[in-house]
């Protein structure tokens, strides 16, 4: 699946190709530990901003080595200020404590969490990247990290075959979510002001005010 962010007239075809090649080497956890908004954004920053190749904790030394090989640059140590390397992991919601606030669902970059407001949420283990982005928003701290312990092999350069398969699936889900978000934003941006006001999220108090106003108008008829 082509990344939605690649169409940029300011980039040459060579730069765009290189960004794709770098993105293919990244683990696609979309964790933002590199301080960019996802793996593709980091790949783009490496090409356009000369971002260092050592900013991916989930990739660790193996990904640094593969980036060094691709870009013909020296291998450098992982930037530990951004986090330490961890083997592949997933998260699990302690469902007995979940209040259905949906904060984790909104935070998940690959839509690996399912549930509805005020109902129990659960993680789709096969889709979770272990990015940990769902943990800080959880008001009850009921999301825990669990190791996956897959057979990664002995490769010291680049992702294992298992990780490549996982990364491809995560990239597809991340891009699909971004595509839907962009579509919603485009629809909202082109709406007349009165429709846009109705489409925008409102606070609970504002919603109650609207309900009370509707009741008042109904009673006055």
Structural write-up:
The chain is mainly alpha-helical. It has 3 domains: 4-85 and 155-184, no CATH class; 89-147, Alpha-Beta Plaits (2-Layer Sandwich); 193-220. Helix content is 42%, strand content 6%. It contains 7 helices and 4 strands, in the order H-H-H-E-H-E-E-E-H-H-H. The protein has helices spanning 13-25, 39-48, 60-71, 103-107, 161-189, 193-199, 204-220; strands at 89-93, 113-114, 122-123, 143-147. Strands 1-4 form a two-stranded antiparallel sheet. A two-stranded antiparallel ribbon has the order 2-3. A hairpin with a 7-residue loop joins strand 2 (113-114) and strand 3 (122-123). 26% of the residues are buried. The model is unreliable at 1-5 and 194-202 (pLDDT under 50).
Summary tags:
two-stranded antiparallel ribbon; mainly alpha; Alpha-Beta Plaits; disordered N terminus; 7 helices; globular; 221 residues; 3 domains
Task: Give a nutshell description of this structure.
The protein is mostly helical and about 220 residues long. It contains seven helices and four strands; from the N terminus they run H-H-H-E-H-E-E-E-H-H-H.
Number of helices: 7
Q: What multimeric state do the chains show?
A: single chain
Secondary structure category: mainly alpha
The Rg value, from CA coordinates, equals 21 Å
Q: Approximately how much helix is present in the residues?
A: 40-55%
Order of helices and strands: HHHEHEEEHHH
Mean pLDDT: 86
């Amino acid at each position: 699946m082509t990344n939605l962010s690649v169409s940029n007239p300011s980039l040459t075809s060579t730069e765009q190709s290189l960004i794709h090649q770098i993105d293919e080497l990244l683990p696609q956890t979309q964790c933002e530990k590199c301080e960019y908004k996802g793996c593709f954004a980091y790949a783009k920053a490496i090409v356009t901003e000369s971002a260092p190749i050592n900013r991916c904790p989930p990739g660790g030394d193996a990904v640094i080595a593969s980036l060094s090989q691709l870009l013909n640059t020296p291998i450098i140590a992982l930037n530990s200020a951004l986090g330490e390397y961890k083997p592949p992991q997933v998260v699990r919601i302690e469902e007995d404590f979940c209040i259905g606030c949906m904060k984790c669902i909104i935070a998940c970059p690959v839509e690996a969490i399912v549930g509805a407001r005020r109902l129990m949420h659960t993680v789709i283990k096969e889709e979770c990247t272990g990015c940990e982005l769902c943990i800080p928003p959880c008001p009850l701290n009921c999301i825990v990290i669990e190791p996956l312990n897959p057979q990664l092999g002995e490769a010291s350069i680049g992702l294992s075959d298992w990780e490549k398969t996982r990364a491809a699936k995560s990239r597809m889900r991340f891009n699909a979510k971004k595509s839907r978000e962009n579509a919603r934003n485009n629809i909202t941006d082109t709406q007349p002001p009165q429709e846009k006001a109705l489409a925008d999220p409102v606070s609970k108090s504002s919603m109650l005010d609207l309900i009370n106003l509707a009741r008042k108008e109904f009673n006055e008829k």
